[in-house]
């Protein structure tokens, strides 16, 4: 029983780190560009399929891990510059554009890769289980877990210590004041959108060996990312991190003990947070 | 000048088209109207791949007979079921009322089959179900106009129970998707398994479309069964198998699953790690009969891919229809004669000898135990044992 709980704890945390990658991007983009990017799941799917295609031709998981986020981030930059910038301040239109973009991306992927279910094997170094006495656990989720935590610490450090991080925080807090101080919100917003979508693409590459690829996954991932940021609080990376862990644990242990109610438990948690603390557990109260 | 030339061109084109139309008209008068078969299958959504494979099978068979039966031409009118019973009802009405089809076929989802049942029954349009497996379709909700040429959930899983108890292990973990097919299949397996002295160690139902099976895997690891009987399909089957292997459970626990789990579409996504998994199904790649060899050769030649049981189901649905139309010599005006012809149809299918059971309107057929193997370079299933001719009891 103890081993079962430990296994499920690790499973939940690994899935939580995948959700964290998605929610972090969504949260950063919202903080700076004030756009709820509903195409986020489609960027995840794009990353996953690109990883599948490049992995087959390059043969190296690590190279793909580096390359795909760059490509997806580049697409994100182009989307911000040519689709969203012109709609600055018109939130409803921006959200509609991201929904449409999500549909287009997902359908293009479907047209190109077909409706078949695809799955990517983990790299040889991380394939198969790890034996710790009587405890057996696959290596790959452990890798995802470690990577998620390292990424959280890294992004936190970048936001706290680097000039760009300061600018991001300034624009998130008050774009008007930031621009009077010589920061260009447009440039910060462009870069942040690129980083946010790159994180979604990274999520796709990292997630593909854990969960299969199929049409429809984009909507599922957008939904999970939204739930995480609603629970954790928008605009703060701590919110995305702890929100993802909470959702991962509720989802994982829900599936273990009450499989039929797993999804319901997540929504119930979200409803509870919205009722008691509408700004999210670690969110800031918006004026 | 340019405009004149264009006008002349258009006139000439129209003339030619008219000629073609009139000659076709006289041709069809001589040959009678074509027989129109309405096909409703999912071409989008989570079951798009199934719809594609069943259609491939149907067209493969019709090509074999030159789109002819009983001296008449055959025409397929395809509509998208969209994995939604409400849509299926709408599409069936359209095919019947607007396109005036003579017969209906297809239907992926059992819920669609239930949804269209009363309408088809009232309009008295013969329906040949090519996939939907819920037992009730040919049991309590049976109709004299509705036939099933695929398989019932009970038929596919009941014979596997005693076979697993005797050949794989007595302690089995039961896992299935939490919907009608998963429950009926598990109940049928359990029925046969208990009779043969098997002991299910646990029974677990998971929601359709899960992204993560690690919780299920943990439960299986903790229960320490000899084997797992899983009833999953599509992406659920892929994710489950992948994680089962990642956790290394395939070293100590055998897989004895529904034929849906080791369908060739799923294997394509899993790769060699699934080698050795056992399953029960009504078709096996290595069945050594001439119909199967011919089917596999034609499928591989046309689509350059590995065939699967969905393509076989489409192939056989058309084979039953063509056989019945041949029996009535293309005269569909007497509906009772047509229904009688379907009821007494016997075909030589890639799955072996298949016969319509006039009492239940469900086909009686062989069910086989199979094992995932690499054969001629392709990942597929090989025959382990013939579990005999299985007839659905109809109640």
Q: What can you see in these coordinates?
A:
- The complex is a heterodimer of chains A (287) and B (395).
- Helices cover 74% and strands 3% of the residues of chain A.
- Chain A has 11 helices and 2 strands.
- In chain A, strand 1 (129-132) and strand 2 form a beta hairpin.
- The longest helix of chain A has 32 residues, at 2-33.
- Chain A is globular.
- Chain A starts with a helix and ends in an 11-residue tail after the last helix.
- Chain B has 395 residues and is of the alpha/beta class.
- Chain B has 2 domains: 35-151 and 288-365, Rossmann fold; 155-281, Rossmann fold.
- In chain B, the strands form 2 sheets. In chain B, strands 7, 8, 9, 10, 11, 12, 13, 14 and 15 form a 9-stranded mixed beta sheet that branches. A 6-stranded mixed beta sheet of chain B has the order 2-3-1-4-5-6, with helices on both faces.
- Residues 15-30 of chain B have low confidence and may be disordered.
- At the A-B interface, helix 1, strand 2 and helix 10 of A face helix 2, strand 8, helix 8, helix 9 and helix 10 of B.
- Chain B: Residues 34-373 form the Leucine-binding protein domain.
In DSSP terms, counting alpha (H) and pi (I) runs of 4 or more, how many helices of chain B? 13
- Taking pLDDT < 50 over at least 5 consecutive residues as the criterion, the unreliable ranges of chain A are none
Give the overall form of chain A. globular
Report on the biggest sheet of chain A.
2 strands, antiparallel
Q: Count the strands of chain B? A: 15
The CATH topology of the largest domain in chain B comes to Rossmann fold
Order of helices and strands of chain A: HHHHEEHHHHHHH
Roughly what percent helix of chain B? 40-55%
Number of helical runs of chain A?
11
Going by helix content, strand content and strand pairing, the class of chain A is: mainly alpha
Strand content of chain B: 15-25%
**Amount of helix of chain A:** over 70%
Mean pLDDT rating of chain B? 90
Measured by DSSP, the beta-strand proportion of chain A falls in under 5%
CATH class of the largest domain in chain B: Alpha Beta
Radius of gyration of chain A: 19 Å
| Ends apart, CA distance between termini of chain B | 77 Å
* Morphology call of chain B: globular
């Amino acid at each position: 029983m103890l081993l079962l709980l430990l296994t499920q704890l690790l499973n939940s945390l690994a899935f939580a780190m995948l959700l964290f990658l998605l929610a972090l991007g969504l949260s950063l983009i919202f903080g700076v560009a004030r756009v709820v990017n509903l195409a986020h799941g489609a960027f995840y799917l794009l990353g996953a399929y690109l990883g599948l295609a490049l992995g087959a031709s390059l043969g190296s998981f690590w190279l793909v891990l580096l390359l795909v986020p760059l490509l997806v981030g580049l697409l994100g930059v182009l989307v911000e510059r040519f689709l969203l910038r012109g709609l600055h301040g018109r939130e409803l239109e921006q959200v509609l554009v991201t929904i449409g973009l999500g549909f287009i991306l997902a359908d293009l992927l479907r047209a190109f890769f077909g409706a078949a279910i695809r799955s990517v094997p983990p790299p040889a170094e991380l394939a198969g289980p790890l034996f710790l006495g009587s405890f057996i656990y696959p290596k790959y989720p452990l890798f995802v877990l470690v990577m998620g935590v390292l990424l959280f610490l890294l992004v936190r450090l970048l936001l706290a210590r680097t000039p760009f991080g300061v600018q991001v925080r300034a624009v998130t807090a008050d774009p008007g004041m930031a621009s009077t101080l010589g920061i260009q919100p447009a440039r910060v917003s462009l870069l942040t959108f690129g980083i946010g979508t790159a994180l979604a693409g990274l999520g796709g590459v990292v997630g593909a060996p854990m969960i299969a690829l199929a049409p429809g996954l984009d909507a599922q991932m957008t939904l999970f990312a939204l739930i995480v940021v609603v629970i954790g609080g928008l605009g703060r990376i701590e919110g995305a991190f702890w929100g993802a862990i909470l959702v991962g644990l509720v989802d994982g242990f829900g599936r273990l003990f009450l499989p039929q109610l797993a999804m319901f438990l997540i929504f119930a948690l979200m409803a509870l947070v919205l009722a008691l603390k509408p700004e999210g557990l670690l969110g800031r109260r918006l004026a | 000048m340019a405009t004149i030339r264009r006008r002349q061109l258009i006139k000439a084109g129209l003339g030619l088209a008219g000629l073609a139309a009139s000659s076709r008209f006289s041709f069809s008068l001589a040959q009678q109207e074509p027989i129109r078969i309405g096909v409703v299958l999912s071409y989008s959504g989570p079951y798009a791949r199934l719809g594609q494979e069943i259609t491939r099978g149907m067209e493969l068979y019709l090509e074999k007979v030159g789109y002819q039966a009983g001296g008449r031409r055959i025409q397929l009118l395809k509509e998208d079921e969209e994995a939604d019973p409400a849509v299926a009802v709408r599409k069936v009405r359209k095919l019947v009322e607007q396109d005036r089809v003579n017969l209906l076929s297809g239907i992926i989802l059992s819920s669609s089959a239930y949804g269209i049942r009363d309408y088809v029954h009232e309009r008295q349009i013969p329906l040949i179900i090519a996939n939907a497996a819920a037992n009730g379709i040919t049991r309590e909700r049976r109709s004299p106009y509705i036939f099933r040429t695929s398989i019932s959930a009970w038929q596919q899983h009941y014979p596997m129970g005693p076979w697993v108890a005797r050949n794989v292990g007595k302690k089995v973990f039961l896992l299935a998707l939490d919907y009608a097919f998963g429950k009926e299949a598990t109940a049928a397996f359990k029925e046969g398994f208990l009779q043969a002295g098997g002991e299910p160690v646990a029974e677990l139902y998971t929601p359709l479309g899960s992204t993560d099976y690690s919780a299920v895997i943990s439960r299986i690891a903790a229960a320490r069964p000899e084997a797992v009987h899983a009833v999953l399909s599509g992406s659920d089957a892929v994710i489950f198998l992948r994680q089962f292997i990642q956790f290394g459970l395939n070293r100590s626990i055998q897989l004895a699953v529904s034929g849906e789990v080791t369908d060739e579409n799923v294997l394509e996504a899993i790769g060699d790690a699934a080698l050795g998994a056992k399953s029960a199904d009504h078709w096996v790649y290595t069945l050594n009969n001439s119909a199967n060899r011919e089917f596999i050769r034609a499928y591989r030649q046309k689509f350059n891919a590995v065939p699967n049981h969905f393509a076989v189901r489409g192939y056989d649905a058309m084979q039953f229809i063509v056989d019945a139309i041949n029996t009535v010599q293309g005269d569909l005006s007497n509906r009772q004669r047509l229904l009688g012809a379907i009821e007494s149809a016997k075909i030589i299918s890639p799955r072996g000898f298949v016969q319509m059971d006039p009492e239940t309107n469900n086909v009686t057929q062989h069910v086989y135990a199979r094992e995932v193997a690499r054969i001629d370079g392709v990942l597929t299933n090989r025959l382990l044992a013939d579990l005999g001719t299985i007839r659905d009891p109809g109640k």
